[in-house]
Structures are given as C-alpha cells and as structure tokens.
Design a protein that fits this description.
The structure holds two protein chains of two kinds.
Chain A lengths: L7 E11 L5 E11 L3 E5 L6 H7 L11 E8 L4 E2 L7 H7 E4 L10 H11 L5 H14 L3 H4 L12 H13 L5 E5 L7 H14 L4 E5 L3 H7 L2 E6 L2 E7 H6 L4 H7 L5
Parallel strand pairs in A: 3-8, 3-9, 6-7, 7-8
Antiparallel strand pairs in A: 1-2, 1-4, 4-5, 9-10
Chain B lengths: L7 H34 L2 H32 L3 H36 L12 H20 L5 H28 L4 H33 L8 H9 L2
Helix pairs in contact in B: 1-2, 1-3, 1-4, 2-3, 3-6, 4-5, 4-6, 5-6, 5-7
The chains are: A alpha/beta, B mainly alpha.
C-alpha cells in the first residue's frame, strides 16, 4: 500500500486485544509506525484507537484479565514489547504517554519532571538539573517556568500543565511518545502550542496520537489510520487520506457523513 | 457521494452551490447557442442580448467563488467534499471564459451587420465545429450533474475533432485570402470566431477532467490520449 522507504520504528503485527470480560476490542491490527513521523489514529468513539494506543505502553497490564494476542515489535532491536518477560516499566521508559487532561503530580514543577529519572535511580543533583532543564526546553516551557521551578505544578495554566506533562514524558529520553487526545481540554492557542511542539518533537522521536479532532489529525500528522469496530480500515499518508481515501467508510467518517 | 452529512445544513450549502454551478453552466450554454445563431442568421437583437447577459455569467462566477470560500472557512471540507469544492472553483473559471468567448462571437456578429459589406462571411462553414464544441460543454455539465467520470474520453476525442476542424478552417481561409485579397478582412473575422469556438472546446474538456478528479480523485489533466483511455477503463 505504501511506497515509502521511511524506516519503521515499531509495528503492530496481527494485534488483537480482549478486555477482561471478553470484549474483543482490537481485531488483528497490522500497522507500522514510521520513525520520526507523526501517526494519527482517528475513528468514532469505541473504535479501539485508545485501546490500540495503550497497548504500546502496556497500560492494559494494570487490570487483570486483559489479554493481548499478536505482537508489537520495536525496532531496531526487534523486541516484542508485549512479551511477558519484558518489564512494563522498561517499556514505559522507551514509550512514554501524555493524556487527555493534564495530570501533573501534586509536586513542584521541578519534581514532576525529575520524577521518571528518580524512579530510574538517578539522584545526582547536577545531572537532574540538567535533564530537567533539557526536558522543559524540549517541551517549550523553560522560558515560562525557569525562575519558579519549585512552584507547585497546579499553579500553571492548563496548556502549561500539558506541556509540563510532555516535559515529564521527555525526561526519560523515550523513543516513542503516545498522545491520547492531548488537546481536547485546551483552548485553541494552547492547542496550537502543543501541535507546534509535536512537530518539533518528531525530529527526536516517533509520535502516535489519538485525536477526535479530524482537523488536528490533518494538521499535525504525516500518516493517518482510520479505525472502526476494532479494525484498521485504512492507513496511508495524511494527504491521501484527507483528499482521496480509498474506502467509502473512511470517506464518510472524515467528511462527517458517518452513520 | 449519496450519503448525507450528519450536519444537514452542510448538505444544503453544498447542494446550493452545486445548483448554482449548473445554473451558470446552462446559462453559458445558451449564450453559445444564441451567439452562433445570431451570427448565422444575422440577427442583431439576439447578439445584443448575448452581450447584455454576459454580466450575469460574471456575477455568478463571483457569487459561487464566495460561496465556496465560505464553505471552506466554515466546514473545512475533506475528501469528496473537498474535491467537489475545488472542482467547482475551477469549473466556474472555465465557464466564465466560455461566456467571454460567446460574447466575443456576438460582438463579431454585430460588426457584420453594421458595416456596408461587400461580402457576408460564410459562417456556415464553422457550424459543425461550433455544434461539436457546444455538445462537449453539454456533456461535461451533464457529467458533473451526474458525477459521471466516464464521459471524459469521448469529450477528449471530440476535442481532437474540433482541433482538426479548426486547422482545416485555417487552411481553407488561407486559400481564400490567396485567391482574392478582398476576402482578407472577412476571412480574419471567420478565423477569430473559429478560434473562439476552438477555445470553448478546450474549456469544456477541462471541465470534464475536473469531473474525473471530483469523482475518482485522479488528476487526468495534461496526459496523453492513450493514458486517458487507460484511465477511463479503470473503475
């Protein structure tokens, strides 16, 4: 389907997922994530896009009875991150996540960003200072908070809190960053800031974003996947999906004719 | 493109613009018919009315352009909707140019009545070519109305015929002018009118190509006849 030679950072191979209780939420999804690209997942509520995203950092492990089938292989080391023997904590260092609502810890700005590194056992003050600064700069927040890093994170605005969460996710030098509707709680300016930030971040890492906002998918992503009822219906470069999708289902969804 | 938008108002807006494009199309078609009729039958009233109606064509172009930009700004159309909007914006440019060509023909017609002429030009010679060009426009508009991407090949073939006839007319006129220098001014008038008709054919062909883009998302402009045949055979 795709004629690109862009290297693949990770790929889902025949990935199925069952929630505890038997809900078959993903049905044999095969999908590559291209390195240093932004891939957007779109689809109606309940189509499995968030479920798919969460597989990438083993979030579903938090509840017993959930079951994966198939693989998510990360390159270049060919690790199947769904393998029982692979430590979820290790996966989350490599693949970090930013959620819909900013969820800073009830700590200082500094400690929020340093948290992941401390979990990793890093206690060297100089090292932490440097890493926190780097992450805050990477999240385009440094200039706004550099003089008040010890302030409580909750004192920041919503958009700043979301960027703080991105800084926190960046601090562990992840290879992939997952965004689950990262701007649905933000105003248009804060949204534009996050989108701008995402397009900066893709130079360093690979991004997978779930969004309900189709225009956002069109604006930020390089590739777009349309999911419906747990299946990957269509996947292609964003320009093609938004101008001449091949499937009627995709066309109906993105033109607002769904249903 | 049969299914409806969840937001019904969007459907209404798209349909309203589409109807206006078709209205503009039929107006332009009538302009060609009347302009040629006035020429062949030496009917000054008819040519007068063609010239007078040209501003209606222009006004529709402006109106449709504005409607399209409103839809783009408010609805952010995608996929088939986007292609239809783009297609309409381009189509009305071609329609407006066809309108200009028709008005040009009508003005030539007027000139032939005004002056004390030795010869009445023989516009009958280009009537076949004119009918072909008008039929091309009719088919293109019909293809747009029905979202039919299959007509493009036939229209492209007709355009080749129009071009051939245009070349033939030129050769014919040159012979005329060589034979009798008094025929030069009349021959040039016929030449200008044939040129206008040939352009109408080109614009009509453009419209049929936009229809393919709208329906299939394929850009078939500036491709060879062979490629066009291949494309037409694909679903």
């Amino acid at each position: 389907m795709m004629t690109t030679t862009t290297p693949v950072k990770a790929e889902a191979r025949n990935l199925s997922f069952f929630y505890n209780g038997g809900n078959h939420a993903l049905k044999g999804v095969n999908m590559p994530l291209y390195e240093n690209k932004i891939t957007a997942l779109i689809g109606p509520s309940g189509c499995g896009k968030s479920t798919f995203l969460r597989c990438f950092n083993r979030m579903h492990d938090l509840y017993p009875g959930n079951k994966y089938e198939g693989q998510i292989v990360m390159h270049p080391d060919n690790t199947n991150i769904l393998e029982k023997s692979v430590d979820p904590i290790e996966v989350r260092m490599r693949i970090s996540m930013v959620f819909q609502k900013p969820n800073p810890f009830p700590k200082s700005i500094y400690e929020n960003v340093a948290y992941g590194l401390r979990v990793r056992g890093e206690n060297n003050k100089r090292m932490l200072d440097d890493k926190v600064e780097e992450a805050l700069k990477g999240a385009a927040l440094w200039n706004e908070v550099k003089d008040r890093q010890q302030d409580l994170a909750f004192n920041l605005s919503g958009g700043q809190q979301q960027r703080l969460c991105i800084a926190r996710a960046l601090a562990t030098d992840p290879e992939i960053m997952l965004f689950d509707e990262p701007t649905s709680a933000l105003d248009p300016i804060a949204t534009a800031n996050i989108e701008e930030l995402m397009s900066e971040l893709k130079n360093k890492l690979t991004i997978l974003v779930v969004t309900h906002n189709m225009q956002q998918a069109a604006r930020v992503s390089d590739y777009t996947a349309y999911m419906y009822l747990g299946e990957l219906m269509e996947y292609g470069d964003t320009d093609t999906i938004f101008t001449r999708p091949t499937r009627k289902e995709t066309e109906d969804y993105i033109t607002g004719k769904f249903g | 493109m049969q299914s409806e938008h969840i937001f019904k108002q969007y459907d209404a807006e798209l349909e309203a613009v589409r109807a206006k494009v078709l209205e503009m199309g039929s107006l332009v078609e009538q302009q060609i018919v009347d302009a040629l009729e006035s020429l062949v039958t030496s009917n000054p009233r008819l040519s007068e009315s063609v010239i007078k109606r040209d501003h209606l064509v222009n006004a529709l172009e402006v109106q449709i352009d504005e409607d399209c930009s409103h839809i783009i700004a408010r609805r952010q159309p995608t996929a088939g909707d986007l292609r239809m909007i783009l297609m309409m914006i381009k189509t009305i440019t071609d329609l407006e140019r066809i309108g200009d060509e028709a008005a040009k023909v009508a003005r030539f017609a007027q000139k032939t009545f005004e002056t004390d002429r030795m010869w009445t030009p023989r516009f009958a010679e280009i009537k076949a070519m004119a009918n072909l060009a008008r039929e091309m426009l009719h088919m293109s508009l019909d293809a747009f109305a029905r979202s039919d991407a299959t007509k493009v090949l036939a229209i492209a073939q007709m355009d080749e015929q129009v071009d051939d006839q245009y070349q033939m007319t030129i050769r014919h006129l040159i012979t005329f002018m060589l034979e009798d220098p008094r025929a030069i001014s009349m021959s040039l008038e016929v030449l200008f009118v044939s040129k206008a008709i040939e352009r109408i054919g080109d614009h009509a062909k453009n419209i049929s190509e936009y229809v393919v883009y709208m329906v299939k998302g394929k850009d078939v402009r500036h491709i060879s006849m062979e490629e066009m045949e291949q494309e037409a055979s694909r679903p």
